[in-house]
Specification:
168 residues; mainly alpha; 3-stranded antiparallel sheet; 57% helix
């Protein structure tokens, strides 16, 4: 049952991407897309069997995903404004550094969501994830605290609940 659900989930997702990329409702394009995405899915769906990425296809998770994108957009705008002010105003301090933060997430997908959220936010970039020791190393343009808990909250606190909800 899981294999069938995964196959059809990946096929539908592939077809959605096909329609978005071709941006065509021509019947030949649709038929070719159905055949092509079926063949690609046939050879790749088993890679998705042990992943939680298909959780985003569950309509019950769509509101969480929508709210996450709104929160991420807000954080990106805030970080852009902060970074622009620090760049343009020499009186504002810049204390760059590499911060080690605790990172105990339930799955690889959750680590990926957190790392990408951090990297998409200007002023921070994920340098390394150490799953064995449950640590993440982040370059931060303005290190505000030496406390790993406060640093984690400041850097990725906005994304953590969404990662846990979507990928646990």
């Amino acid at each position: 049952m899981k294999k069938t659900e995964t196959f059809f989930g990946v096929w539908i997702l592939s077809m959605i991407f096909w329609m978005l990329f071709t941006w065509s409702v021509d019947i030949q394009e649709i038929i070719f897309g159905i055949i092509l995405t079926f063949v690609v899915t046939l050879f790749t769906y088993d890679l998705w069997l042990d992943t939680k990425l298909l959780n985003v296809l569950n309509p019950l998770n769509w509101p969480t995903l929508f709210v996450y994108f709104l929160v991420l957009l807000r954080e990106i705008v805030k970080a852009n404004v902060d970074l622009a002010l620090r760049t343009l105003n020499p009186k504002l301090p810049i204390y760059p550094g590499i911060v080690e933060i605790d990172a105990d997430f339930p799955s690889d997908e959750a680590y990926t969501l957190i790392a990408n959220s951090i990297t998409l936010t200007p002023g921070t970039i994920t340098m390394e994830i150490d799953e064995k020791n449950k640590k993440m190393y982040i370059h931060w343009i303005h290190v505000e605290t030496e406390d790993p808990k406060e640093g984690a909250e400041a850097i990725y606190g906005f994304a953590e609940p969404f990662a846990r909800r979507l990928f646990s």
